[in-house]
Amino acid sequence: MADADVSELLTAMHRIDVLRLSEEHKHELKVATSALSLALETPWEITMRIVWQEPSVHACICTLIDLEVFKRWVAECEEVRSCQELAELVGCDSRLMNRLLRNLASNGLLVNCGSQNYAMTEFTRSLAQTKHIAAFSYFRNLHLPMLTALPTYLASTKYQDSFLKHPTSTAFNQALGTKDGLFDYLSKHPDQERDFGHCMEAVSGSVPSWIEIYPTESSIVKSDGQRDDVVVVDVGGSIGHDLNAFQRKHRLQPGRLVLQDLAEVLEGARVESGITKMPHDFFTDQTVEGKSHPYIVIYSQQVRSAWDD
């Protein structure tokens, strides 16, 4: 490709109106640009990105979240702020603040406006939201330690799948220094359990809901003769994001939608009116019985991904 062709391609790219693209075209462009970006990098550049660039971005974001910079910045409703202003806002050394912000700007996550002034992007504005804060907290406190421990753990097993034989001797157990499984561990660490719940809610909200795909109306019609009959039981449903969506769609009377999880998890669930919260361990027999027709049983994503059939 000649230089003129490259210039023409760059011009065309700058003309793309992302907001008007279909989801299909967005996906195609992301795949194509990711492949091109990877092809343009040398092996050493890829190593530098994975080993230095991406971890440093994560560390800077976590530090700025701890300082509540994004929350305070959004609350101030000022698009452009100087590092001095932000430093004073949260009680941070201005030189340190500039280093943190400059790192994000060099990675395209903030806009460097010059003279140590920065503007937010859509992404950095989102870091004031609970689900994004929870995701970084979960990664920092649970996921990253597990990933760090994984190579050593796998070497200790001689690269065999030993989970079924030793379910309490995993990379998670090694990293966190516990004999508990993930959900028992979370039940003893409420802050991390809350973060996990917010993450699951965010994941659920980022993809088409089964409620939009499955003909839920047919299940309601089947049990229409029994106005108090159960329609859906969400097993291991965490804080109730799926059932909340179901209830917002159909507005059923109390008793027809049942949210099941461990009692300590349900304490943090804020559910729509009419949803019944029922403590339940899914390793035990199901206690809910439909009076006239079978009801829908949902096993949440975290249950399906954490345990075999």
Structure characterization notes:
The longest helix is centred in the middle third of the chain and has 27 residues, at 130-156. It contains 16 helices and 7 strands. The chain is 57% helix and 10% strand. The N and C termini lie far apart (52 Å). By secondary structure, it is of the alpha/beta class. A 4-stranded parallel beta sheet has the order 6-5-4-7. The mean pLDDT is 86. The protein is globular. Helix 3 packs across helix 6 (94-106) and helix 8 (130-156) packs across helix 11 (190-206). The chain has helices at residues 3-14, 23-40, 43-66, 69-76, 83-90, 94-106, 122-126, 130-156, 171-176, 182-187, 190-206, 210-213, 216-222, 241-250, 263-266, 301-306; strands at residues 80-82, 110-114, 117-120, 232-235, 257-261, 275-279, 296-299. It has 3 domains: 42-126, Orthogonal Bundle (Arc Repressor Mutant, subunit A); 130-205, no CATH class; 209-306, Vaccinia Virus protein VP39 (Rossmann fold, 3-Layer(aba) Sandwich).
Helix content: 55-70%
Distance between the termini: 52 Å
List SSEs in N-to-C order. HHHHEHHEEHHHHHHHEHEHEEH
Biggest sheet descriptor: 4 strands, parallel
- Overall mean pLDDT score? 86
Number of domains: 3
Class by alpha and beta content? alpha/beta
What name does the CATH topology of the largest domain carry? Rossmann fold
Topology (SSEs and partners):
Blueprint: H1 3-14, H2 23-40, H3 43-66, H4 69-76, E1 80-82, H5 83-90, H6 94-106, E2 110-114, E3 117-120, H7 122-126, H8 130-156, H9 171-176, H10 182-187, H11 190-206, H12 210-213, H13 216-222, E4 232-235, H14 241-250, E5 257-261, H15 263-266, E6 275-279, E7 296-299, H16 301-306
Parallel strand pairs: 4-5, 4-7, 5-6
Antiparallel strand pairs: 1-3, 2-3
Helix pairs in contact: 3-6, 3-8, 5-6, 8-11
Protein name: O-methyltransferase dimerisation domain-containing protein
Pfam families: Dimerisation
InterPro entries: COMT-like, COMT_dimerisation, SAM-dependent_MTases_sf, WH-like_DNA-bd_sf, WH_DNA-bd_sf
